[in-house]
Amino acid sequence: MPNYTVQDQTTGKKITFEWSDPNPPTDKDMEEIFSQAGTVKPQVQPTQPQPVTSMQAGNVPSKKEPWYGEYLSQGPRTIGGILGGIAGTPFAPPFGTLAGISFGSMAGELLEQGRKYAVSKGVFRQPSETEQMRAPQSISQAAWEVGKAGIEEPAYQLAGAGVIKGFGKVLAPFAKKLSSEAQGTIDFLKDRIKPVLTPAEATESRGLDILENIAEGSLLGGGQLSKFKLNRQRVLNDMVDDIVDRFGKRVSPEELGETFEKVVENKWKGYKKAVIEPLYTEVERLTKPIYGQVEKRVPRPSTILDISGKPMVGETIEQITKQVGGPIISTRSLKEFAKPLAKISGDLGNIEAKNAGDDLVRAVLDLPDNVEFQVAKELRSRLISRVDEFSVINKKAPAIGKAKQFIKLIDQETEEGLSPYPEALSLWREANRLYVQGEKQFNNAFIRRLIKKADPDFGGEPEAIGKIVFRPGAIGYVKQVKAATDPATFKQFQSYYLQNLLSKSVDDSGNIIGDKMLQNMYGKSGTGDNVLRELFDLQTLDNITKFAKAAKVSQMERREHIGKIWIQLSQAGAAANLGFGGPGQEISGIIVLGPPILSRALL
Questions:
Q1: In angstroms, rounded to a whole number, what is the distance separating the alpha carbons of residues 527 and 544?
Q2: Could you tell me the CA-to-CA distances from 603 to 66, 179, 370, 578 in Å, in that order?
Q3: Pairing between β-strand 3-7 and β-strand 14-18 as defined by DSSP bridges
Q4: Could you give the percent of the chain with pLDDT greater than 90?
Q5: DSSP string for residues in 331-374
Q6: Closest CA to 364 of 331, 394, 392
Q7: What span, in angstroms and rounded, lies between the C-alpha atoms of 378 and 386?
């Protein structure tokens, strides 16, 4: 006669009572029991009251299901569907396959329902609360689950037939468990290798994990799976070459640097020649100086002495050639800026003279007070050249600041000198604007540093260019290189990046590793999504990413390792039993030959 314990959810009071009826107490029964106990009916009646006749230490019902519970729950239906599908395939496929899956799944589920019921009744051990809840409450409920298994499994097969067609006999019943990553991998690799994935790799079924471990760990059948996976890795490695070859010939770091230097310098020269120089030439035409002969009084000493005994000085008139028309550009403001600097440089001598810009200061002081437009333009160009040079070799040199100030002053003087010539002044301003625009694209500080790296005259390291451009998160560098080069050269940068990426994404044996490739692309220290989107068009980037993901999925270790060691130990004993004519040879033969058959089925 079992005892039941229930709790009043209002007062928290527990009531234990005996119940002799084989059926659980009804609502009316519970009302009478609580009325006799002097309390109210609990708000929620326990779905399954727990017997308390055996509450000794060590025999208390467990609230947590044993670790193997889920395997046992999935196993019968899974194995039944697999074996039924394989058995039915030779007979009028696909209908024989579907019928085999249906009957096999029903048989497996029938065994599972019986097992759950036995566990809930404590046949094997004290059941957990979860196991009691999962047990069938009636024959009709068990029959429903069995029938549902017979309908669901073939339905899953039909629903997934188009997706998994040709990817292994065993995978079909598990279309419902096909992971999204596995689906992407199958779609990406299906034209190169079949099957793409084993059922355990393609699904999230623990039952299939165990079956594959048994097959892979077997003495006779493991070789088939190993050969399949080795061949798949070869396919992935071959695809690496295909990906790089899409971007033309493979380029070495040295070739990349030399090509970059040549292309950028030619584009900058071409830009200046085509866009800027014609404007400056037109300004020179409009401001062409006019020269004429003018008289100049020149002092001339006399042979006659004055009262003090010194030679008397007379004058003579000479004809000289002088600019009598066209703009005149003053240099006085530049000289005023240079005078105090010359005093300092004189006191310091030649200490770091060039880095300090002392030669520029002396050159400015030696200029005439007024110069023609052409001279002013050439002075400006030379000052810009000095800034460009030092921004690469020593960007902290004081000469840069002095040169920039001289450029600013000569621009102001040129603006003032051209003010009487509005057309020339407008063209001058436009030429300067276009120069700055082109410099940003073809001659900015970053591009000049890259050119220096590529130039052997500067002791360059052309192989360092790719490392500089493709720093993690440095999207601006990629944009500048794209703007400064032509499509063919930028394609070489893409090829170089891919070669470098793939070379960093292999193991010690030279096999491409998908997870490592994804980390190098998108990880914390990887290139970064923004840089990759700037480097490749979306379709190309998507294909590269799909390849990395496909490699990762096909190389993932299965979560469950149960079965591999067990089958190896079992087969070792079974093989010995067969060899020495021991008892139970039929069972030993099944243990030895079963996994190889399963291995073929999994592929």
A1: 14
A2: 32, 18, 90, 28
A3: antiparallel
A4: 11
A5: -HHHHHHHHHHHHHHHHHTTTTHHHHTHHHHHHHHTS-SEE-HH
A6: 331
A7: 13
Question: CB of 258 within 8 A of CB of 454?
Answer: yes
> Distance between CA atoms of 165 and 195, rounded to whole angstroms?
10
Query: How far apart are alpha carbons 382 and 360 in whole angstroms?
Result: 10
The structural domains of the chain, with segments of one domain joined by +, span 290-325
Q: Which pLDDT score, from 0 to 100, does residue 409 have?
A: 95
Find, among 344, 352, 338, the residue nearest to 405 by Cα. 338
pLDDT given at position 287: 85
Q: How many residues does the chain have?
A: 603
SS3 43: coil
pLDDT digits (tens, 9 = 90+) for 166-220: 334 444 455 445 566 666 766 766 666 665 565 555 555 555 554 555 444 443 3
* HSE-up of residue 552 (Cα within 13 Å, Cβ side): 15
Looking at residue 492, its pLDDT comes to 78
Structural tokens at position 281: 């030439």
Which one-letter amino acid corresponds to residue 392?
V
- What is 469-537 written as a DSSP string? HT-TT-HHHHHHHHHHS-HHHHHHHHHHHHHHHHHTTB-TTS-B-HHHHHHHHHSTTS--HHHHHHHS-
Written as six digits, the tokens of 402 are 């002095």
What residue type is assigned to position 406 of the chain?
F
d(CA 588, CA 595): 12
Choose among 180, 197, 240, 184: nearest CA to 542: 184
* Positive/negative CA dihedral, 78, 79, 84, 90: positive
CA distance from start to end of the chain: 55
Other beta carbons within 10 Å of 465 = 26
pLDDT tens by residue, 545-575: 988 888 887 776 544 444 443 333 343 343 3
DSSP states along 149-213: HHHHHHHHHHHHHHHHTTS-TTTGGGGGGB-HHHHHHHHHHTTT-SSSS-HHHHB--HHHHHHHH
Question: CA-based Rg of the chain, rounded to a whole angstrom?
Answer: 45
Check pLDDT > 80 for residue 247.
no
pLDDT digits (tens, 9 = 90+) for 512-542: 888 999 999 999 888 889 889 988 889 889 8
Rounded CA-CA distance 178/485 in Å is 46
353 vs 398: CA distance, rounded Å: 10
Distance (Å, whole) CA 222 – CA 573 = 17
φ, ψ for residue 16 (rounded to 5)? -110, 130
Which candidate, 463, 438, 445, places its Cα nearest to that of 453?
463
Return the closest-CA partner of residue 357 out of 367, 339, 368, 342.
342
Mapped onto helix, strand or coil, the DSSP state of residue 259 is helix
Nearest to 23 by CA among 137, 139, 113, 140: 137
Q: Which two tokens stand for residue 506?
A: 């292999």
Could you count the other beta carbons within 10 Å of the beta carbon of residue 74?
Answer: 18
Contact 520, 504 (CB under 8 A): yes
